[in-house]
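Record pair follows.
FIRST:
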Amino acid sequence: MGVVVPLGEARAASEGLQPLLDIVQEDMEAINRIILDKAISDVDTIPELAHHLIDSGGKRLRPMLALAAAKLCGYDGSNHVRVAAAIEFMHTATLLHDDVVDESNARRGKKTARLIWGNQASVLVGDFLLGQAFRMLVDVGSLPVLRILSNAAAVIAEGEVMQLAAAKNTATTEDEYLAIINAKTAALFLAAAEVGGAIVNRPAAELAALRSYGKNLGLAFQLVDDALDYAGDSSRLGKSTGDDFREGKITLPIILSYRRGNEEERAFWQRTIAEGEIADGDLERAIALMRKHKALEATLERARSYGAIARDAMAIFPAGPEKHAMQAVIEFCIARAH
């Protein structure tokens, strides 16, 4: 399965986040304190469930991007920390909602909150975290930042509904799928990058560059996730290889394999994905078909293309540690082996 993550790329993945971590470490410590404070509630289930996911080992990439973008744009206040904490709460809320919609049993190597506390509690705690996020944004007092993140929240919800409509539908096209992940995943990456410039009222050209960077980074990130679900290391993924397959989730490797397959192969996808009839050995056959039609390679090639667009978008900014760190994140997202 090394076709997806060659050795050199795996090494790049392990190193790609370090420049970003170096420039945001102090701010991330402040964010951690805010997260702990804002997850408190008199309702016992809320902090228990929230901390279950918050403490489960996520990289907090989106808030780190917001911090780096603010530093890149010359921000010297403290409100960027509250904005980044709000972004992490928004992301955590979407994970809680995602796991309920997808009926997922594991995330980052742990049982999902819905398995422990139930679907209803997971959805409601997700709503609580969204509410806390927007409380923090109101305290920041920046209308442009509030507009960007409220728009992102609406777009993400639209993406969830779009994905639900496409579930198990083998007729889904690549364009339709890209529209889903643009809303569901890329929207928050875009917003995280853009708010870094919006909080400093940077020129429109710079905000457009940050939007392009975030959007294309998010698309690349999701496409790599799609490939890793079939060719990744489950111990590093934090979930079992093939979870997307077992959940009947339509992702790009399936779309490409279905389109490129013959009649008998399409019948296989129809039985396993559309009808949910999965037998022993079907996952192995699915992966074999993806290899036959080079669907995993093609998915990663598309991810690299979006990564290149993200890198080019940063050309407007002068060289410096922040720009270097944000470009290194592109390599991390494409090359990561977990």
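SECOND:
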Amino acid sequence: MTDNPTPAPLADELETLFARKKALADARWPLPPRPRIFTISNQKGGVGKTTTAVNIAAALSQQGARVLVVDLDPQGNASTALGVNHQSHIPGTYEVLIGTHSIAQVVQKSSDNALLSCVPATINLAGAEIELVGLEHREFRLRQALVDFLGSADGTDYHYVFIDCPPSLGLLTLNAFVGASEVLIPIQCEYYALEGLSQLLGTIDMIRDNLNPRLVVSTILLTMFDQRTNLAQQVAEDVQQHFPDTVLKTLVPRSVRVSEAPSFGQTVVAYDPSSSGAIAYAEAALEIAQRGGPV
């Protein structure tokens, strides 16, 4: 009696994943000459925003880049995925915004690897929107903190900063937009994918005109792609048609492994690096690295 052969479709899929992983290993991963600061934003929830932030950060750090993730969402999901402590007594982005701590005082190493760090978000951040209203230069609090940190001995060798925003357009997100030079927008390949995008782009235009002229939408990433459905294919085509110079070629698929990883305090890049989701996020990170930042 002989073993049953592996079904051809599964064998083909495994061979393709192996080839993609080898291509990533053989690729050139250039490091930027100065830190690239991204805001990961979409006021529509459930589009893979936090997942995108932590996995692209992890993929870049695995290739030798030193990366900082700033968790600006009171839910603290990015902090959880990176395996850093964000209990209420732990200082983090809240203390940075109100000015009692510097980034250097609150930054923690991720459990993923030594080159990946995180400024954690605690539940205290939920009240920051109200407290910021009465503070001077309220829109520039994060920007100044990042300038101070990246210009200090602790922050001079960072290559990337990713700011994970809450799904809203309040003062926390405004601080992220003012503090960044690039915006990365994850868009799910589902119905209503483009809903609210025009509002987000309009907000970014206003911020560029009034607060941060350096800000550009440099990257759009299509997430939750299901190649079995015509709808996902159509959404991907629509986004690529509307934003041909901005959208990445990489499509991030729906993946059980991507959903499982945070429960283990890990990114999927660390949890299951051979999975389709991990490879897709690594490919997206490579595209970002090879494209370079805005001139």
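COMMENT: DSSP finds 13 helices and eight strands in the chain.
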